Structure formats: structure tokens, C-alpha cells
Design the sequence.
């Protein structure tokens, strides 16, 4: 099993910034570098949607169009932690944000991920 613990959500004004963190632990975790990483978000009444991913090597990052140029995914394998840096936040970024990891290949599809964080609320005031 791998446990993921998120932190860093909160209330911010439009145009502001937040950094979400996701720290991995567990008996099944040899190294975070074995996993592909993902960030997803979910708003009330909507399905969980893909936000960003990074492959196990750190060489490939992919973003949903709506956050390109504003959000950055990063990883620190030594700390078993990965991040989502969010800048120029907009009201429509308001959601519960989830981190997730999976082995194998990268994916934008939530059901493909094996392990999930508990979610952290991000609220952007307009």
C-alpha cells in the first residue's frame, strides 16, 4: 500500500498563488521515482477531471489546456513528495484537488490511478 497525504489548499483571491504538496509513504513505496504522478480536481456536481501529470522520469509533464502556463507539476523523489504550483488562480479553479500515483504508463484517466490522496480544498474568490 501507498499512502498519499496532501497539504496546501486554502482560500485565495483571484490572481493569487498556492502550492499543493503530496507526500507518499507506505510499505509498498520503495521510491516515488517508480511512479507516474497526477493531479486531479473535482467541483460540486462535476466529474473528477485531469489537471496535470508527470511521468516517472520527470522528463514529461502534461497539463489540461485550462491551466497551461499557470500551473506547474514538480517532484522531489528524495522527499517522496510532489507538488502543484498554481499561479494566476481564477475563480473557475475552485475545486477539491487530489493527488494520485500509478505505475506503468502515464494516464489522464482517474480510474487508472492506484493510490489517491484525501483531497484538499482550493477556493478562489473573485
Sequence:
Amino acid at each position: 500500500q501507498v499512502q498519499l497525504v496532501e497539504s496546501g489548499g486554502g482560500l485565495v483571491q483571484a490572481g493569487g498563488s498556492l502550492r499543493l504538496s503530496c507526500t507518499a509513504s507506505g510499505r509498498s513505496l520503495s521510491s516515488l521515482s517508480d511512479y507516474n504522478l497526477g493531479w486531479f480536481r473535482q467541483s460540486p456536481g462535476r466529474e473528477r477531471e485531469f489537471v496535470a501529470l508527470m511521468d516517472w522520469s520527470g522528463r514529461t509533464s502534461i497539463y489540461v489546456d485550462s491551466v497551461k502556463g499557470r500551473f506547474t507539476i514538480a517532484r522531489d523523489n528524495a522527499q517522496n513528495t510532489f507538488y502543484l504550483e498554481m499561479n494566476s488562480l481564477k475563480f473557475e479553479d475552485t475545486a477539491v484537488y487530489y493527488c494520485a500515483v500509478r505505475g506503468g504508463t502515464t494516464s489522464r484517466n482517474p480510474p487508472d490511478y492506484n493510490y489517491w490522496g484525501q483531497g484538499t480544498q482550493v477556493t478562489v474568490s473573485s
Q: What stands out?
A: The radius of gyration is 14 Å.
